[in-house]
Amino acid sequence: MQLYAIIAVLAITLASVSGYIVGAIQQPDIQSTISPDIPSLENNGENQQRTIVVTGIGWATAEPSIAKVNLGVYTEASTAAEAVQQNAEKMSSVIEALKALGISEEDIKTLNYALSPIMDYESRPPRVVGYRASNVITITVRALDMVGQVIDVAVEAGANEVQSVTFTLTETESQRLKLEALQKAAENAKAKASTIASALNVEIIGVLRATES
């Protein structure tokens, strides 16, 4: 079973009864700032030095629900116009075959398109002997058991390059997983903070700032 995992790391700086808690949350791909409503921290060196730093880690996993297939059509011809035309015809055939398989137009996106000369570097000076056109698309496959069939159909229709297959989650599922991991990281850090504060006989009086980057 393949799992898609997200890990959140939460670093918190704790203050004793005469200070406040300062926290920093770090997690990939999210930018936010959380500022609880508590009294402002006095610009006092003594307060700022009375701190304890802890790190909490939380993770959440789920089975992949979709696949991203990147494949392309590469054509070569003596002229740029011919290379472009042949490429367009083959890619149209690939897309139509995918649609006939049940892939929606919204799940077929152009990833990269390029036209470049083919050079003969053995001649002096080097000369252009043809042109290469490439068109790469990404296909979102929402039924994982169809991945192999999608590739077979695309190749039969004219695709001659399969770049990658990635198993992942939808944006909604990914966001839910990130929040779950973040919550677990916060709970883990809080448990560590409470244990250390109790052992040192100090009181944690609140969170001044938590920054996620």
Plain-language structure description:
The chain has 213 residues and is of the alpha+beta class. Helix content is 31%, strand content 41%. The chain has four helices and nine strands. Strands 3-9-2-1-4 form a five-stranded mixed β-sheet. Strands 6-7-5-8 form a four-stranded antiparallel β-sheet. A hairpin with a 5-residue loop joins strand 1 and strand 2. Helix 2 runs antiparallel to helix 3. The two termini are 31 Å apart. Residues 16-47 have low confidence and may be disordered.
Give the low-pLDDT segments: 16-47
- What is the total tally of β strands? 9
Can you summarize the main beta sheet? 5 strands, mixed
H/E element string? EEEHEEHEEHEHE
Q: Strands of the biggest beta sheet: in what spatial order?
A: 3-9-2-1-4
**Contiguous helical run count:** 4
Distance between the termini: 31 Å
Strand content: 35-45%
Backbone structural class: alpha+beta
CA-based gyration radius: 28 Å
What best-fitting shape do the alpha-carbon axes yield?
elongated
Oligomer: single chain
Arithmetic mean of pLDDT: 81
Helix fraction bin: 25-40%
Question: What's the layout of helices and strands?
Answer:
Elements: E1 4-15, E2 21-26, E3 32-34, H1 45-49, E4 51-62, E5 66-77, H2 80-101, E6 108-120, E7 127-141, H3 147-157, E8 161-168, H4 171-199, E9 207-212
Parallel strand pairs: 2-9
Antiparallel strand pairs: 1-2, 1-4, 3-9, 5-7, 5-8, 6-7
Helix pairs in contact: 2-3
Summarize the structure.
By secondary structure, this protein is of the alpha+beta class. It contains 4 helices and 9 strands, in the order βββαββαββαβαβ. The longest helix is centred in the C-terminal third of the chain and has 29 residues.
